[in-house]
Amino acid sequence: QFFAPAIFDDINVMKGLNKEQPIKQVTSLFKKLDFVIMGLGTPRAKESTIVRSGYLTEEQFNAYQNKGAVGDYLLNFFDINGDTSPFHDFNSHVMGISEEDFMNIRTRIAIAAGADKGICALGALKAHKINVLITDINCINRLLEALEKEERMSL
After folding, report:
1. What's the chain's Rg over C-alpha atoms?
2. pLDDT band at residue 92 using 50, 70 and 90 as cut-offs
3. Burial of residue 140, with CB atoms counted within 10 A of its CB: 0-12 exposed, 13-18 middle, 19 or more buried
4. CA atoms 9, 14, 16, 21: torsion sign
5. Which pTM was predicted?
6. Are 114 and 44 in contact (CB under 8 A)?
7. E-strand spans in the chain?
8. Are 22 and 1 in contact (CB under 8 A)?
9. Residue 30 contacts by C-beta under 8 Å, 6 or more apart in sequence?
10. Given CA atoms 19, 5, 113, 115 in this order, what sign does their dihedral have?
11. Inter-residue contact 98 to 121 (CB < 8 Å)
12. Residue 2 pLDDT more than 80?
């Protein structure tokens, strides 16, 4: 059994691996997905899978936060509005389902718990990255606080 990395330093290596038949067999299934169940990545470096797995250092992770990252879905960073474009330099190195194929999945379920995930869930919802959220009261309270703050600022 061979485990491919999720994030590549060299995009050309990732593109080459994507041309291999066993990988193409898996990725061809992406277009057939009816639903996906996923977690939303934490906005804190010490708890981040991306940091714990060694793909980024805490300093690098914090730099993306300083650019506005509030979390990630499928290892792709996004901001409070769900926009992934400010993080293209990182997200383009993630091997997995394309944005287009992902958004064509009818049901996109995210599981997020804890107050720290509230802003992350809000960004994912705003950009329609997810259309079902399974959460707890702490997460939803933080999400609602953020919405109320945005509403006050827009007046």
Report:
1. 16
2. very high
3. middle
4. positive
5. 0.91
6. no
7. 35-41, 71-73, 76-78, 107-112, 132-135
8. no
9. 97, 98, 101, 102
10. negative
11. no
12. no
Q: Within 13 Å and on the Cβ side, how many CA atoms surround 131?
A: 11
Counted residue by residue, the chain has a size of: 155
Six-digit token pair at 101? 């194929």
The encoded tokens of residue 5 equal: 């990395």
Burial 92-114 (b: 16+ CB within 10 A, else e): ebbbebeeeebeebeebebbbbe
Distance of alpha carbon 155 from alpha carbon 19, whole angstroms: 51
Burial class (CB in 10 A: 0-12, 13-18, 19+), 51: buried
What is the Cβ-side half-sphere exposure of residue 141, based on CA atoms within 13 angstroms? 5
Q: Using CA atoms, how far apart are residues 24 and 16, in angstroms rounded to an integer?
A: 11
Q: Which residues pair with 78 in a beta bridge?
A: 71
pLDDT in tens, 13-66: 999 999 999 999 999 999 999 999 999 998 787 888 889 889 999 999 999 999
